[in-house]
Amino acid sequence: MDVKSLLGGALLALAVAAPATAQNFPNRPVTLLVSTAPGSGMTVTARLIAGELEKIWKQTVTVDFRGGAGGYIAAEVTMQQPADGYYLLYGSNAFTAIRLFAKGNTFNPATDLTPISYAISQPFVILTNPKVPAKDVKEFIALAKANPGKLNFGVIGRSQQTLEVLRFSALAGIKMEEVAYQATAAVMPALMTNDLQMYLGGVASQGPMVKEGRLVALATMDDKRADYLPDVKTLKEQGINQNALFWYGIWGPPKMDPALANRIAADIKTALSVPTLKDTLEKQQYYNVAPNTPAQFKALLETEMKIYADVAKANNIQPE
Fold first, then answer.
1. pLDDT for res 17
2. What is the rounded distance in angstroms from the CA atom of residue 94 to the CA atom of residue 92?
3. Going by CATH, does the domain composed of 19-121+246-314 fall within 3.40.190.150?
4. pLDDT in tens, 66-76
5. So what's the pLDDT on residue 184?
6. Are 90 and 250 in contact (CB under 8 A)?
7. At 59, is the pLDDT very low, low, confident or very high (cuts 50, 70, 90)?
8. Is the pLDDT of residue 40 over 90?
9. pLDDT at 229 (0 to 100)
10. Class of the CATH domain delimited by 123-238
11. 285 Cβ partners below 8 Å, 6+ apart?
């Protein structure tokens, strides 16, 4: 075979093996890995977003699930994939607290993966039950100060929930005891029977129980009141300068081409701007309120990790 033929064959091989670029992405199906098991709040939103991306990309977007270890199992799987954009991770800000609780885990979601785009969020809501003699934050703080260490707050495992309650406690000047559970299904009975006096829940998840009178919402933790609970004041309105959002975002494997990451981020922003999707998500109390570029998403991660690291240090939290 002559040199020209050899070169032609080599160039063809390189073209076939060439990584995805911002211009030609995607030219085959994409996988969106969700960092929880099916059935969580992430399931519906992941499928909705994937559906809009399919329309933009004109390629199948397969939603897969890999729960466990606070989302780290899915993150670890993603870290092992090619950085070509065909394997993306749909995770949450639970990632920002993993290394503070898991001994030997140094996972950094800002650097060990490629941050692509913040997606959606909903504010935490501070919940108690009707047996607790407090109908707002001021009354709850007064009760806690009168009973130091006697009020219990519940968390699912140990995560950013723990850290946000500790932030609240420090700002309010109170002390409560933490009780960890494996799932929300165990927390709700404990809260309603007054084994727990406080829990940080979701507006969409526990809002209906507030409207039914089974739970009491003391405050929402955002700059503005939640549309679903318009009569519940924000924490800031009640004198505590703290926001706490539970959010979902999208990452790629490490060392993705910045141009490709920016292209995918722009497409995610377009998908989330589609009126029908936006309306569907907002009815579930999910909003797209934060920056969407990879650089801005990385900065958001770094800021949140710094806040949580400071809270962990102040409370002498040690990884287990």
1. 39
2. 5
3. yes
4. 998 889 999 99
5. 80
6. yes
7. very high
8. no
9. 95
10. alpha beta
11. 122, 202, 203, 204, 207, 226, 227, 228
Domain-by-domain residue ranges, the chain?
Answer: 19-121+246-314, 123-238
| 140-172 pLDDT per residue, tens | 999 999 999 999 999 988 888 999 999 999 999
DSSP-assigned states of every residue in the chain: --HHHHHHHHHHHHHHHPPP-TTT--SS-EEEEESS-TTSHHHHHHHHHHHHHHHHHTS-EEEEE---GGGHHHHHHHHTS-SSSSEEEEEEGGGGGHHHHSTT----TTTSSEEEEEEEEEEEEEEE-TTSS-SSHHHHHHHHHHSTTT-EEEEESSSHHHHHHHHHHHHHT---EEEEES-HHHHHHHHHTTS-SEEEEEHHHHHHHHHTTSSEEEEE-SSS--TTSTTSPBTGGGT-----EEEEEEEESTT--HHHHHHHHHHHHHHHH-HHHHHHHHHTT-B--S--SHHHHHHHHHHHHHHHHHHHHHTT----
Whether 74 and 228 have beta carbons less than 8 Å apart is answered as: no
Provide the residue type at 54 as one letter. Answer: E
Q: Global pTM? A: 0.88
